[in-house]
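Technical annex, item 7. During the second reporting period the consortium partners agreed on a shared format for inverse folding records so that results from different sites could be compared directly. Each record opens with the tokenized structure and is followed by the designed sequence. A conforming record, contributed by the partner at site C, is shown below for reference.
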């Protein structure tokens, strides 16, 4: 059995390699957030841990330095969303980003929507929207769609761990007009469902809204989306973008950063002796008395080295090395 690493030691070793949960506001892209912080802090390596659509808001984990190698582990974790879905309308983008069209169908009762949610729990087959970042024939689907091409986006398997209706409301014409996009839907009211969605990687909440609308025969569009959690990072504790930019310009963004190993706390930890730690950061295998599977790997002094994989032959194979080789063994 391996003891857990000392958190203070881990954090002190993470300077220049860290994760900051930033609150992305509506109206900008996830790439905009990355570029703004890259410009403000002059970071050579920076990325985000999962795209949020321009019309969505919420937590966007920003990874800096070698921590960018942990992106796949953020993607592998679950994400939690609060979604507002309006029934009785459709859109090419499945949200307010496209032209909103009255479906002409009757508005479903709340119980029908609640009952239909069971169809979308667990592993499901989902087709991403035509206006999405999925690559089709080497190009983004949204680029092809905007060019007027008929885009056939392939369906794929995704997992929805939890899906529930929090509340229902009816929007009248005045409330719809206040969105700036729904004024043309006419005088009849529309049912809006507030949903909580906990899902795995690759899930499009816009597509979920579209398919839920189809399942009740009315059509539906996503009219609001907040990502409240990505892995261990919550929107409630995310840093506003303006504050993050200010800290980056002052060279202080790392001061509020999280150690990159926090991205993978669901993976068991493994501490290595000095010789094995030096070998790990140079790509060498190490014999370990461990069952097969991934490991968060640490030096004996608590420094986070990266992610390894214990093979069936009890050898630890380096997968993602984050620690500079020159620092190990000093």
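Designed sequence (site C submission):
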């Amino acid at each position: 059995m391996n003891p857990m690493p000392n958190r203070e030691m881990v954090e002190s070793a993470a300077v220049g390699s860290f994760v900051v949960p930033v609150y992305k506001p509506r109206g900008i892209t996830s790439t905009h957030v990355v570029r703004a912080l890259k410009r403000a802090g002059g970071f050579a390596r920076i990325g985000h841990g999962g795209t949020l659509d321009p019309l969505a808001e919420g937590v966007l984990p920003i990874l800096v330095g070698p921590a960018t190698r942990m992106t796949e582990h953020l993607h592998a974790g679950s994400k939690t969303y609060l979604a507002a879905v309006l029934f009785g309308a459709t859109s090419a983008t499945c949200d307010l980003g496209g032209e909103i069209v009255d479906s002409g169908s009757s508005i479903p009762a709340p119980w029908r929507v609640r009952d239909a949610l069971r169809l979308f729990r667990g592993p499901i087959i989902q087709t991403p929207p035509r206006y999405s970042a999925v690559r089709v024939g080497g190009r983004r689907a949204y680029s092809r769609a905007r060019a007027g091409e008929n885009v056939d986006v392939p369906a794929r398997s995704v997992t929805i761990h939890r899906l529930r209706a929090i509340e229902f409301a009816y929007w009248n014409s005045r409330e719809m007009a206040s969105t700036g996009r729904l004024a043309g839907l006419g005088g009849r009211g529309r049912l809006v469902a507030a949903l909580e969605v906990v899902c795995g990687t690759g899930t499009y909440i816009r597509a979920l809204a579209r398919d839920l609308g189809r399942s009740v025969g009315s059509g539906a569009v996503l009219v609001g989306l907040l990502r409240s959690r990505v892995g261990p990072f919550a929107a409630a504790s995310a840093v506003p973008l303006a504050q993050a930019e200010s800290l980056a310009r002052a060279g202080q963004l790392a001061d509020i950063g999280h150690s990159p190993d926090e991205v993978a706390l669901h993976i068991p930890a493994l501490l290595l002796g000095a010789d094995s730690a030096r070998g790990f950061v140079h790509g060498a295998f190490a014999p370990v008395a461990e069952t097969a599977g991934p490991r968060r790997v640490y030096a004996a002094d608590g420094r986070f080295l990266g992610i390894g994989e214990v093979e069936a032959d009890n050898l630890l194979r380096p997968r993602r090395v984050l620690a500079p080789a020159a620092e190990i063994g000093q």
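The chain is about 20% helix and 35% strand. The radius of gyration is 23 Å. All partners now use this format for quarterly exchanges.
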